[in-house]
Design brief:
With 285 residues, the chain is an alpha/beta fold. The chain folds into 2 domains: 217 residues, 2-enoyl-CoA Hydratase, Chain A, domain 1, CATH 3.90.226.10; 61 residues, Lyase 2-enoyl-coa Hydratase, Chain  A, domain 2 (Orthogonal Bundle). The chain has 10 helices and 11 strands. α2 runs parallel beside α3, α3 packs across α4 and α8 packs antiparallel against α9.
């Protein structure tokens, strides 16, 4: 995948296959715009197809993880940064423009994150509102800095959580808590987010990057094929009947049971040693 600085974020790749996507516009609280979202979709597509990438971590610079959409950016003509893709119209200039902008850019970003079979971590370093909250919730793991604040709060502007935020909130909290959260336009502390189930852990801000790296390392050294199949199976199970979920995981097990990682795991257990997974990825390290 391409590394370096792009439109509003920078990408780096650490061994063994940990891709860091760092939002680098702290003066804007890392607000989103159409160009940034489109470049992120391209970056994530590259990450999915690149065997050198095993885990993706999102993090922001400054006080914001991502404080929602940068509404002023929609009126700027010249793109900032070094775009991966040529500029396109931002949309939202008419009802059909809003529909197209959501379906093909804003919602597409969160759908891309959720459709990755590689595991993702949101290291929520600061404010995560609206777009930023939805992006974090689309990730598999969420670690929040103690000073982070999270919320939808779209109704403060008469807007809706139109990037799939309502779905992601229901998945994390259930209907009753989601109704309370969005109707009261709540912006909660990291500790409150942990109680609500919006994040997996809360850590001191100066330890966030290290904790995210520790988790990423654990995930990157695990059996990648089985972990990716498991991820897809868990998300699909949320939408299937029990019978359909059993059928679905049976088809995936037919792959994982016969993969070299499984043979290595069983051998290591009998030999009382630590397994050495992912031999098939050694050439990419």
């Amino acid at each position: 995948m391409d590394t370096g600085k792009f439109t509003g974020f920078e990408v780096s790749l650490d061994k063994p296959g940990i891709a860091w996507i760092e939002f680098n516009e702290p003066e804007k609280l890392n607000g989103m715009n159409t160009r940034k979202k489109r470049d992120l979709i391209e970056t994530l597509t590259q990450a999915q197809m690149d065997n050198a990438v095993r885990v993706i971590v999102f993090i922001g610079q400054g006080r914001g993880f991502c404080a929602g959409d940068d509404l002023k950016a929609y009126s700027r003509g010249k793109p900032e940064g070094n775009p991966l893709m040529p500029p396109i119209p931002p949309g939202h200039d008419s009802p059909i423009g809003t529909y197209n902008g959501l379906r093909h850019i804003s919602q597409a970003l969160n759908l891309t994150i959720r459709s990755l079979d590689k595991l993702t971590i949101a290291a929520v370093n600061g404010i995560a509102i609206q777009t930023g909250l939805s992006l974090a919730l689309a990730c598999d793991f969420k670690i929040a800095a103690q000073e982070a604040r999270l919320g939808s709060a779209t109704l403060r502007f008469g807007l809706l959580p139109d990037e799939g935020g309502q779905y992601l909130l229901v998945q994390h909290m259930g209907i009753a808590k989601t109704i309370d959260f969005v109707m009261h336009k709540r912006i909660v502390s990291a500790d409150e987010a942990l109680v609500l189930g919006l994040v997996n852990a809360v850590v001191p801000g100066d330890e966030l990057r290290a904790e995210a790296e520790k988790l990423a390392m654990e995930l990157a050294t695990g059996p990648q094929v089985s972990m990716r199949l498991m991820k897809r199976s868990v998300y699909q199970a949320a939408e299937l009947s029990f019978e359909q979920a059993c059928e679905e995981i049976a088809s995936k097990t037919a792959i994982s049971d016969h993969h070299p990682d499984t043979r290595e795991g069983v051998s290591a257990f009998h030999e009382k040693r630590t397994p050495k997974f992912n031999e098939w990825l050694r050439e990419y390290e």
